[in-house]
Amino acid sequence: MADPIIIAIPKGRILVETLPMLARVGIVPEAAFSDEDSRALRFATNQPHIGLIRVRAFDVATFVAHGAAQIGIVGSDVLDEFDYSEIYAPVDLGIGRCRLSVAEPVEMAAGDDPREWSHVRVATKYPGLTRRHFAARGVQAECVKLNGAMEIAPVLGLASRIVDLVSSGRTLKENGLVEVETICEVSARLIVNRAAFKTRAEEIAPLVEAFRALVAEEGQQDAA
Length: 224
Ligand SMILES: Nc1ncnc2c1ncn2[C@@H]1O[C@H](COP(=O)(O)OP(=O)(O)OP(=O)(O)O)[C@@H](O)[C@H]1O
Ligand SMILES: O=P(O)(O)OC[C@H]1O[C@H](OP(=O)(O)OP(=O)(O)O)[C@H](O)[C@@H]1O
Prior knowledge:
- By secondary structure, the chain is an alpha/beta fold.
- The protein folds into two domains: 5-96 and 187-223, 3-Layer(aba) Sandwich (D-Maltodextrin-Binding Protein, domain 2), CATH 3.40.190.10; 98-186, D-Maltodextrin-Binding Protein, domain 2 (3-Layer(aba) Sandwich), CATH 3.40.190.
- The protein is built from eight helices and eleven strands.
- The protein starts with a strand and ends with a helix.
- The model has no long low-confidence stretch (mean pLDDT 95).
- Bound molecules: adenosine-5'-triphosphate and 1-O-pyrophosphono-5-O-phosphono-alpha-D-ribofuranose (PRP).
- The site of 1-O-pyrophosphono-5-O-phosphono-alpha-D-ribofuranose has 11 residues, from strand 9 and helix 6.
- This is ATP phosphoribosyltransferase.
- Belongs to the ATP phosphoribosyltransferase family. Short subfamily.
């Protein structure tokens, strides 16, 4: 029998929104998948030819790009940061909605005009996206790479500004920061390894179509 199709799912906040979508396309993981205490990384589903792995958000893209997982669910922030040529992203799932923004301390923003910047130093998990965003208008971005808790960087003098994901704005507010510029809107995408999409089309194409149909159905419900 052929190896199962592996779907890579990110731990963290997208996971919660992903489970109902998986169920609606007929994929139900074994119970341990939703158990925060479980140390397992690979899980069976109700479909013998489909397995799941639960990995960090940035690693979902790495597993799929290298063909170690054939399918994944990942934020467009991660795809835009790395721009993997081996990844095909056919469906915007409409979950994990947020935006990538530049933020700075409230006091600094009062007398600041982003149009006058020629050089910025920012703390971010997204140095690639940040440099490209600023380079497009001739601003040189010096990036300090962090993997989390960017919001603490300005007050401790690590970098005067940050580039991070924002949704409700609560994290910025509680750390004395304000958004001064949006870099891009973010939502989660279904991704597929391009080579696997060709060689295992009979298994993968129906799954992609099931997700596409689900999103279209939800769009119609929203519009009604
Ligand atoms: N505030 C948010 N609102 C909506 N979606 C978000 C938000 N923050 C992150 N996301 C989305 O969820 C993905 C995973 O983010 P999350 O914060 O759960 O991971 P993380 O804790 O930073 O990851 P890791 O611990 O694996 O490095 C992001 O890549 C983004 O697409
Ligand atoms: O605008 P808000 O609604 O406050 O959301 C923004 C926060 O959400 C994300 O972090 P998350 O809480 O996922 O955890 P992390 O810091 O571990 O990445 C992001 O990195 C911000 O810190």
